[in-house]
Write a structure and sequence with these properties.
Layout (H helix, E strand, L loop, with lengths): L3 E4 L2 E4 L2 E6 L5 E3 L11 E8 L3 E9 L15 E7 L15 E6 L7 E4 L11 E7 L3 E9 H4 L9 E12 L2 E7 L14 E4 L3
Antiparallel strand pairs: 1-2, 3-5, 4-13, 5-6, 6-11, 7-8, 7-12, 8-9, 10-11, 12-13, 12-14
Length: 199
């Protein structure tokens, strides 16, 4: 049986995977412009709960750019998930059960999905953002399993996961850093890291 603890308003399982993005090797775009952890880095957690998945990320960013136009949405995160049954995980391409969620913390449009070639959208994703003065920002995300199952599969003990942070300065993306994969994570799910959500 899983025991749950409350952390900053979220209900996390004791089986929690810690996420860190803070090294030169994790830069997938803009290596020459990255100035270290305070410029752009991430610490976070992902866990299974009784109702779905919860994630909490703290992004160090010394210059936060909010939405400047409908085209330029400011700082954003890319979440990659693969919840396919084991028999389908041999496929190294996007299909039902594999999807990317773009999170725009400072935009009117908080969320978008990729790809759009099959039913992928998940409704009722909760995104909470708070700015931490002179340090960066925090993003908390809740996704209900019941909503995931409408277009995908039920959650499994082990899933494929990745996350990218995109640092925007002066209205343009300056740096992208990725937890596990590389610049091709948007098309090859085998680049995702396999993480355990339950014992």
């Amino acid at each position: 049986m899983l025991i749950h603890v409350c952390l900053a308003g979220f209900l996390f399982s004791q089986k929690t995977s810690n996420i860190s993005i803070n090294s030169m090797e994790q830069i997938t775009y803009g290596k020459t412009t990255w100035r270290g952890e305070k410029d752009c880095s991430l610490q976070g957690k992902i866990a299974r709960t009784t109702s779905g998945i919860e994630m909490e990320f703290f992004i160090l960013d010394d210059s936060i750019v909010e939405q400047t136009s409908e085209q330029e949405k400011g700082e954003f995160l890319e979440l990659y998930l693969d919840i396919r049954p084991v028999r389908l995980q041999v496929h190294n391409f996007y299909e039902k059960g594999v999807f990317k969620i773009n999170i725009y913390p400072f935009s009117k449009e908080k969320i978008s999905f990729f790809p759009l070639t099959y039913p992928i959208e998940i409704h009722k994703i909760i995104v909470k953002t708070s700015i931490i003065k002179n340090k960066g920002y925090e993003v908390k995300i809740q996704i209900e399993e019941a909503e995931i199952m409408k277009n995908h599969y039920s959650l499994r003990k082990q899933i494929g996961f990745d996350v990218s942070i995109n640092d925007v300065d002066k209205k343009v993306r300056k740096t992208q850093m990725t937890y596990s994969g590389n610049a091709d994570s948007w098309q090859f799910p085998h680049l995702f890291k396999r993480i355990e959500l339950e014992d």
